[in-house]
Every structure is written in C-alpha cells, then in structure tokens.
Amino acid sequence: MTQHEDVANGVESNGVEANTRQIEASVVTDFSDRMSYGGYLDLGTLLAAQRPISRPEHHDELLFIIQHQTTELWLKLVLHELEAACAYLRADELAPALKCVARVKHIQKTLTEQWSVLATLTPTEYAQFRNVLGNASGFQSYQYRAVEFVLGNKNAKMLQVFDADPLAHAVVRRALEQPSLYDEFLRLLARRGYPVPSAALERDVTLAWTFQPELVPLFASIYANPDEHWAAYETCEELVDLEDNFQLWRFRHLKTVERIIGSKTGTGGSSGAPFLRRALELTFFPELFAVRTEIPG
Fold this sequence. Notes:
This protein is mostly helical. The chain has helices spanning 3-8, 37-41, 43-47, 61-90, 94-118, 123-127, 142-150, 166-177, 181-191, 198-201, 216-224, 230-261, 273-279, 286-294; strands at residues 16-17, 20-21.
C-alpha cells in the first residue's frame, strides 16, 4: 500500500490514525510518585486563586481577575530581573545586566498587548460587577510601585498605601531605599572613568530622579562617538527602550480605562483617567531623551 493509499484509508505513516496521534511508548503517564507538570507549577493553588465574588457570579469577572493576576505575575518577573540588573551593574558586569533588561523589554510588550484583552470588556458588562471591587485598585499594586521605584520614579508618600500589609510595605521600602537602575548605571560609568557629576553620584537615592542638565554633555559625548563608547552607548539605548515601553503601557492603561469607564472616578478614590494621564508626564531617564536635541544633524 502506498503512502497516499494509507492516508486515504485513515492511516498515516507518521503515527496518526483516524486523526488521532498515538502516544509514544516512552511517554511517562504514571505520576503517582513522579514530579508532574501540575505539581511543579503548583497549578492546584494557581488555578484556585480566581475567586469571583459577584452574586450571581458575573461571566466577565473572571476575565477581570485573570487580567490583573497575570499582570502581577509578570511584574514579579520584571522586579526579579531589574533587581538582578542592578546587582550586575554594582559588580561591573554590564553584559548580564543588559540581558536582564532585554528580558524586561519583552515582558513589557506582553503587558502592553494584554490591555487589548481587557478592552473586550464593555462598559455595561463591567458596571454589573464593578461594585464588588470596593476600594480595590491597581494603584495599590506594590509590585508595580516597586518597579517604578527601581526605575527611579520614587515617592516615599506611596508607602502609606501599604501600611496594612507588612510584606508589601517591606518590598516597596527596599526599592525606595536602594539606588535605582539609573543610579547604578551612572556609578558604573564613573568607575569606568566617565566624568559623571558628583551631584548625580551623591544624591539622596530615596528621592525621585529629576532632570540634571549637567549630565547631558556626558551623554552627548557618548552619542557623538558610539564606536568608541559602545558599551555605554548600547546601555543608554536599552534604557530608552525601557522608558518607551513603560510609557506605552501607561498610555494603553489610560485608553483602556477611558474605553470602559469614561471619566468616572477610580475605585481606589483617584480621579480616574485624569490621574492616569498625569502619569505620562513622569520620567525615568530624562537626560537620555534631552540629549537627542543636542545631537547634530
């Protein structure tokens, strides 16, 4: 029988019969005393964590919960990678630090695209279960706040949001008190002989980074001779990517909120869309954008 005849009779030479793939004999199927996929990932706990509280349960509440839970999982990895990047920079290991940043950039793209899923929630659908959220709001995400702090946009007043949660408070406070990713990059540049102004190196790291014009000439010299300063030049562009991606995420957040609740106030007490819009004015690495004006051409 030819291969063509085999397929015509429902038997394929590659082990598929009647559109059913045969399980290979070597595939493990007994997990009574072996590590399984579900066991390794603790899926019993993970998949039991979605507990809608609307009564009767509203169909779309599960979407809302999963959207935010998956965001928190990605934020956990972002924080993990950024903290590692800071440690690598402190140790003068730039290459692995940039590997961490590269991974964060991919996560950011996933987080931004994820807003399109939530955007399928219509105003009418959300209104039917929004009341069960009480004062719960993404503003209270301690991992998001820690990520902002690690990137340099710090605000000690935010700590009070987490006073009732010692674990969250400790995570945010640690991010507040440690040098940011940008601080660590500038310190690395100084150790490598670049003329980083002392004010940038000796600043109070618990404060939000603010624009320091005296840094712009340093970055202008790096951008003027990228071949000579390739490592520094590449890192600058990676940081610009980080901020670009973060702003895109903020913008998609704003537009999704406007799409679903319009100009209503937020569940956490904020003004809603206007409050989110002001976040677009916040920056992480302002000198890396300002230097573009100084580049000839």
